[in-house]
Amino acid sequence: MNRNSGELDKIRFVMVETTHPGNIGAVARAMKTMGLSRLHLVRPKILPNAEAVARASGADDLLAAAQVHDELVHALRGCRLVVGSSARLRTLEWPLLEPGDCAQRLLAEAGQGEVALVLGRESSGLTNDELACCHYLVHIPTNPAFSSLNVASAAQIFTYEIRRAMREAVGSRIEETPRDLATAEAMEGFHAHLAQTLVDTGFSDPGQSRKLLRRLRRLFNRARPDRVELNILRGILSAAQGRKTPDRFRKAGAVDGDPSTESGGDASSGA
User: Fold this and answer.
1) Whether the predicted pLDDT of 268 surpasses 60
2) What predicted TM-score, i.e. pTM, was given to this entire model?
3) CA 15 – CA 37 distance, rounded (Å)
4) pLDDT tens track for 165-192
5) Which 8-state DSSP code applies to residue 226?
6) Which of 160, 159, 217 shows the shortest CA–CA distance to 191?
7) Sheet strand arrangement including 136-139
8) Boundary (domain end) residue, out of 169, 201, 223
């Protein structure tokens, strides 16, 4: 992932005439959670204040480093690619991207130079003149009947898509913690124990329980219990068979409610 950290440093988020300073803080938070740090502000109505810092939730370093500009063109200096965001589709013929495609294009271009994503005003977005500074327009396909999306929420979508595109580029995936799954022979022992318990407790007729046992096998095959979970299950079966009594905890001096004392040695219980 290190080879893409430089690309993230080349991506700047530009906020134009933001009305609420809290939104600036929230965008800073969205950026920092996804590894982005370059924030530019164009004529904000109120400079980042205590409300912005509160909404940043620890990303106040981005607010402190944010560059403030009088004109959008100044915020875009040095950028080889500029993408403007819009909450609505324009009548103008404009090259249009969805957030995922936008993220991939920004990352690809950031490998060669500076790029920018421009966020418009909360109430009216970007003007046509501001759009004229952009190479592409990115649109989040929201519900047509209710397309209202806060600028910080939109920024979180964009930052997430950039992060996801970066991770895909390097083949990074969230991996599950390896589990010590029960072996086939351990599962066979459990199913034999389960079948016997169903008979011992009067739950099933041994002569007519084949279909029931097949269903239970499917259930536990889907669950794929690990060794500890299988120990617990077999301990429950042993208790149901009467092999355990409540006073065993007092005899052993065990602490009430300690799960570690409830399944000890159960895996070796006979079926």
Assistant:
1) no
2) 0.72
3) 13
4) 999 888 767 677 888 999 999 999 999 9
5) B
6) 217
7) 67-69, 38-42, 11-16, 114-119, 79-86, 136-139, 96-97
8) 169
